[in-house]
C-alpha cells in the first residue's frame, strides 16, 4: 500500500490491528462460551 498521503500507513496499521484484535476477541469469547469445541 503506497503511502500517498500523510497518515495513510498509520491508518492501515490501525485497521489491521483492530481487525486482529476483533478476531482474537471473537475467538476468546467463542472458546469461553463453547469449551467443548476446543
From TrEMBL:
GO terms for cellular component: plasma membrane. Keywords: Membrane, Transmembrane, Transmembrane helix. The chain crosses the membrane at residues 12-33. One of its GO terms (molecular function) is P-type potassium transmembrane transporter activity. It comes from the Bacteria. InterPro entries: KdpF. This is K+-transporting ATPase, KdpF subunit. The lineage of its organism: Bacteria, Pseudomonadati, Pseudomonadota, Alphaproteobacteria, Hyphomicrobiales.
